[in-house]
Specification:
Rhopdopsin 7-helix transmembrane proteins, about 5% strand, Nematode_rcpt-like_serp_H, receptor, transmembrane, 7TM_GPCR_serpentine_rcpt_Srh
Length: about 350
């Protein structure tokens, strides 16, 4: 058994020649990097248009709600930026090893710090999702409900605590005792013939060892899940009750339903997008197949989250939807007229 990565590379890895020949263009780091850059170019305008609609075309009754929409979109945008061009991680799933092959590598940022940054962004997404549904819950819950008292300072504290909860996932990675040499060798038992990039300095391995910090991370993930589920379920129950209360106007009831649907859609759309990659990765995990190309395709779904979140935001919020439809109706006649003129000119 090899005791160092260099020894494994010079002995065992030379026997992987046939398997390495099976890797297609989809498996190459160049495919992932090029696709991620193209994806970034396509997605960024969609996100910027979403921000434009939030700030310019949000009606007065969305004065508070729009900041929660912006908050979530901001973190999704950061996820796209970091995953597509800044870190561009090549994952060697099911091994707990990834190589950060983006622009941050060219600037000399160590791979472990790139992992910390991505965890930081995920923490922001978790915090913004909870605050989004907490906002909806506060407007739907009756004044007699104990959660109705969560205002101003307590709400800010709730956001900070939830962000801190998300950060706990970074602690086990930061404080892992085992060396990178040992962890990478251990993961070679799972993926004995990875791409050559696995042995590069850009790769970083995470430990699977159960420690007090990892238990804390798992526990906080459960707490966050329960918290989100509570706000969604209780908000839905309060929404149903409010629909039969005579003290609310028909307009208010319609807005309550619209806001709740918009919040659900903005969060659910990215999760539904990740359903396909989860199925693919599950297949790799069960079969132990070394399908690096399939893993690369799955990675490209992650930056796409912000685009799908923005699209759902624009569809399920009436004010944005009306603006888009109105703009299209103004543009299409002009396009038809100019096309007709070109056709007539060519005939003449």
């Amino acid at each position: 058994m090899s005791t160092t990565l260099a020894e494994y590379y010079s002995t065992n890895y030379t026997k992987c020649y046939e398997k390495l020949q099976e890797f297609s263009f989809l498996s190459s780091p160049n495919f992932l990097k090029t696709s991620a850059i193209v994806e970034f170019i396509v997605i960024i305008p969609i996100n910027l248009f979403g921000f434009y609609c939030i700030f310019v075309h949000s009606p007065k009754y969305m004065k508070e709600f729009k900041w929660h929409l912006f908050h979530l979109q901001f973190w999704f945008l950061l996820l796209t930026i970091f995953y597509s061009i800044l870190t561009t991680p090549v994952h060697f799933f099911p091994a707990q090893v990834r190589c950060s092959n983006g622009f941050l590598r060219q600037f000399g940022v160590p791979p472990e710090y790139q992992v910390y940054i991505v965890h930081f962004v995920f923490s922001g997404i978790v915090s913004s999702v909870i605050l989004l549904f907490e906002n909806r819950h506060r407007h739907l819950a009756p004044t007699t409900d104990f959660t109705y008292k969560i205002h101003k300072s307590p709400r800010i504290l709730l956001g900070i605590l939830n962000f801190s909860v998300g950060i706990t996932n970074t602690i086990p990675v930061m404080l892992q005792d085992d060396s990178q040499e040992y962890l990478k060798l251990k993961n070679l038992e799972v993926v004995p013939c990875p791409m050559e990039l696995y042995f590069d300095s850009c790769s970083f391995a995470s430990s699977k060892k159960i420690t007090g910090w990892s238990i804390l991370a798992y526990s906080t993930n459960i707490i966050v899940t329960i918290e989100i589920a509570f706000f969604i379920i209780h908000s839905f129950l309060c929404l149903r009750k409010s629909q039969v209360v005579d003290t609310f106007s028909v307009r208010t009831k319609q807005l309550q339903i619209a806001f709740f649907r918009a919040a659900i859609a903005q969060v659910a759309a990215p999760l539904l997008v990740l359903f396909v990659p989860f199925i693919m990765l599950g297949y790799i995990l069960v079969t132990s197949a070394n399908l690096q190309g399939l893993i690369n395709v799955c990675i490209l779904f992650i930056p796409a989250n912000s685009a799908f979140s923005t699209i759902s935001l624009l569809i399920y919020n009436k004010s944005y939807r009306v603006f888009i439809i109105g703009t299209l109706l103004k543009i299409l006649p002009k396009v038809e007229i100019s096309t007709t003129r070109v056709a007539m000119a060519s005939i003449n």
